[in-house]
């Protein structure tokens, strides 16, 4: 009976989450501009040409868009509904991680908090990589938890595949996924006694599989071998981290605009048409970054430390047109700060508790690794606030954990 009513409650909450997220997105409709057009056109090219490539974008998100583009074109309502469902499924994953690692009331608190949080809901109405990136980062965390507690190869193989696909949505996660793969291969060899090496080999192949599309598409379109995009984005992003102080939402309201140097960089960096030209362009921007460092090493390091902090700040919840949000800007900033403080406190409590409870360790260490990775890597990009959103399911999970512990402490005192 308990299981039946839990299923009913869970279904009701998820349905309510989809409705809330759709409503929240329609509360402040965002313009269909910039990166959204690029992802949409990539999906159209995949429909018309099959294998396709872009010099600076990867296929992961456009591939997920293909069915929607095929049946609905650029219609916003179907896409918004799809995003609302995707973000609610992320909430279900948060619930599942909390149930497997912590238990008690934490899964329910975390689910409710995630379903009504405005920070991810603000991106439900736009065709950006946020929703799938948040989903797959959380899914990878769930699979890491599952794989760490089982000797069954199926979960480990799926973990390897998802770890390989995540960088196809957000290439910045390539090294993070590689780190997960290293842990996974060691875990497979240690855990799967008789067939550890064959399972590890298959896991490695599954991790590499999502990169084959890039290789084939880059050879076909650009006649260049590359496992990701043909543009070496690292030095472009590193240079943008120097010329862009702090990226803010930019839409038709023109409250903030990208510096002219940033626009020039985007246009110039993808202009070469040969492998030699792209390599020379990467070297050019590498020299620019190193030149800034040599001129003021202390200022360079200090500015990037500040960027680490900035990437976790949230001053708006919508990505482009934020004119309606202006009266609530302080509330958004302070609300996010409170969430991060509570989440950090919960993670510290989880780390302490993990000494006694082994089942909580995978979630703790995955969270720590993810938060540290995002903090460092996003300091060397444009540093947009949305870049840290994939961590928010776990931030909310640890917030729920701290809330439960605080309630227990109050009960004991009373």
From TrEMBL:
Topological type in the membrane: Multi-pass membrane protein
Domain (Glycosyltransferase RgtA/B/C/D-like): residue spans on this chain: 70-208
GO molecular function: pentosyltransferase activity
Residue spans crossing the bilayer: 7-25, 105-126, 133-152, 172-189, 196-216, 333-352, 364-381, 387-403
One Pfam family matching this protein: PMT_2
PANTHER family for this protein: MANNOSYLTRANSFERASE YKCB-RELATED, MEMBRANE PROTEIN
Compartment list: Cell membrane
A biological-process GO annotation: lipopolysaccharide biosynthetic process
Record key words, sorted: Cell membrane, Glycosyltransferase, Membrane, Transferase, Transmembrane, Transmembrane helix
The protein's name: Glycosyltransferase RgtA/B/C/D-like domain-containing protein
Any one GO CC term of the record: plasma membrane
Lineage: superkingdom: Bacteria
InterPro entries: LipidA_mod_glycosyltrf_83, RgtA/B/C-like
Predominant location category: membrane
Coiled coil region boundaries: none
